[in-house]
Specification:
The protein has about 425 residues and is an alpha/beta fold. Helix content is about 35%, strand content about 20%.
Length: about 425
């Protein structure tokens, strides 16, 4: 057991709005929070293994990266400034076809390092092989929800069911959800089989959805309806889930999302870089559709930085709506933290409160961009950066603090292994 006390903190619990508690205290009992509130209400007589003076810095819930492909770090900046079809077919797919489980393992550890420096405490990961990802994240002490990426060429229904049973309930840091890559890479029969699995386990389903106008038009040509309408017609959403990107949802698509309580995970950095379009975030907010934020993969973004994503969510919405008041910064902060936790099924990781997992981040309030303290939450969204992250804790364990990692592996080893991997891929 390990107990930590952090005192003299500004405390943004997000348990009830965006108010910041001055002179706050947060204590942990192993992996859970034992107290989060004003110093005046702190329990007395408890012995701690470590006490940390926050010196007025901010404690808040960790960010949740609700859509990513961690194992793609080995292809960061490898094939930039290409059209999407050439990027995928000429650069990405041939190298992923040669990627081993060992390569995914090291690439995932590199991604975890970057997540921690950005204050991200959990990721919603969709990639090729789940076991090396689970091994890498568990060894680092990082929280990871994986989702299937089934398509006509890989990740069969049998494998999805195996992974669902093997990766749930074994380790509190690891879980798995059913998923498909996209409508356009899956046959109708395959998606029908996934629907049967969802009903068998009463489990949600996720997939890339309406990322490009081309994707939506293609589905209409095949089936006469949108990807959301088509997948709903197969019964995929009876137990919830949602879609990644969702740039081109129709009015009826949005009603389907509301009907089934589905969540939109927006990925503004990737959608901007790949010229996919701007998701209508303000409309989703008005319709009370659940929202979360993801970075997408490091080969298409290329940065796993939640601060940049937050600014892009609101900045692009303001441009798209031609309205500077569109998409309030507080709504964006909620998406990046609590909204992501809800999307990922991490109900015990959403806010800072007694009994919740101690998944949190400390923000350095003495950085110039965080001063003056007119509005802390707006500073986070509009002027904050990953350079402001002083500490990241997952399940009560400090994994990153003042530039140092505590993830059971030397950062140099991880970086060297990934560089060796891409060196082997260059001639493909």
């Amino acid at each position: 057991m390990s107990r930590i006390r952090i005192y003299n903190a500004r405390l943004l619990t997000m348990a009830d709005g965006f108010d910041v508690i001055e002179n706050g205290v947060l204590t942990t009992d192993d992996e859970r929070i034992s107290y989060a509130g004003a110093a005046s209400g702190e329990p007395q007589g408890v012995k701690y293994d470590r006490e940390i003076d926050a010196k007025g810095n901010l404690l808040m819930p960790g960010f949740k990266n609700a859509h990513t492909h961690s194992g793609m770090t080995f292809l960061r900046s490898y094939a930039d400034d290409l059209p999407l079809d050439r990027w995928l077919n000429e650069a990405i797919f041939p190298r992923e076809a040669k990627l081993s489980g060992d390569g995914i393992y090291w690439s995932t550890k590199l991604a975890v390092m970057e997540y921690l420096t950005s204050g991200i405490t959990a990721c919603f990961d969709m990639y090729l092989q789940p076991y090396p990802i689970a091994k890498a994240t568990e060894e680092c002490g990082f929280r990871c929800v994986q989702v299937g990426s089934m398509n006509n060429f890989s990740q069969s229904l049998e494998l999805q069911e195996e992974w669902y049973n093997e990766l749930n309930g074994k380790n509190p840091l690891t879980s798995y959800m059913f998923g498909y890559h996209a409508e356009y890479t899956c046959s109708k029969e395959l998606l029908e089989g996934l629907s049967e699995l969802s009903h068998k386990y009463k489990a949600p389903v996720w997939g890339h959805n309406s990322e490009t106008a081309f994707e939506v038009d293609g589905c209409k040509e095949r089936y006469g309806i949108t990807p959301t309408e088509f997948t709903e017609s197969l019964g995929l959403y009876e137990y919830g889930g949602g879609g990644y990107h969702c740039v081109y949802l129709s009015d009826n698509d949005m009603e389907i999302f509301k009907k089934h309580g589905l969540c939109v995970v927006t990925n503004p950095g990737s959608n901007t870089k790949l010229a996919s379009g701007i998701a209508p975030i303000s409309t989703y907010l008005k319709k009370n559709i659940g929202l979360a934020i993801g970075t997408d993969g490091p080969a298409s973004n290329n940065c796993l930085d939640m601060f940049r994503e937050m600014f892009l969510v609101t900045g692009l919405a303001k441009l798209n709506d031609k309205d500077a008041s569109s998409v309030d910064g507080n709504d964006v902060l909620y998406m990046a933290t609590v909204g992501g936790a809800k999307a990922m099924g991490l109900d015990d990781c959403d806010v800072l409160a007694k009994g919740k997992y101690a998944d949190l981040v400390m923000i350095d309030m003495m950085k110039p961009e965080m001063q003056p303290v007119n509005n802390i939450t707006k500073n986070l969204v509009y002027s904050g950066s990953k350079a402001d992250v002083k500490m990241t804790m997952v399940a009560g364990k400090i994994l990153y603090e003042d530039g140092n990692f505590n993830i059971g592996e030397s950062p140099d080893t991880i970086i060297n292994e990934v560089n060796k991997l891409i060196g082997e891929m260059r001639d493909i």
